[in-house]
Amino acid sequence: MQKTLKTSRKDERxxxxxxxxxxxxxxxxxxxxxxxxxxxxxxxxxxxxxxxxVLEINGTRLALRRSEADLVLVEDLDAQAGAKP
Length: 85
Fold this sequence. Notes:
The chain has 85 residues and is of the alpha+beta class.
């Protein structure tokens, strides 16, 4: 199931599908490692508002605002692991 990182919660794991093209931040997100096929995990979200979230991707931690995370399309790895073939 595809969604954006905006709705993610702590400890969820995802595979990056794409970054929304044409947005001013899209190129920067790609430069930060949010490339299609990369796996990541949400390791922290700020108390109360949940903004920003902290991701771990390729051993690197990255903090994103929820508005930035809304540009990253992902597949939920945890849901796929529980899905029947």
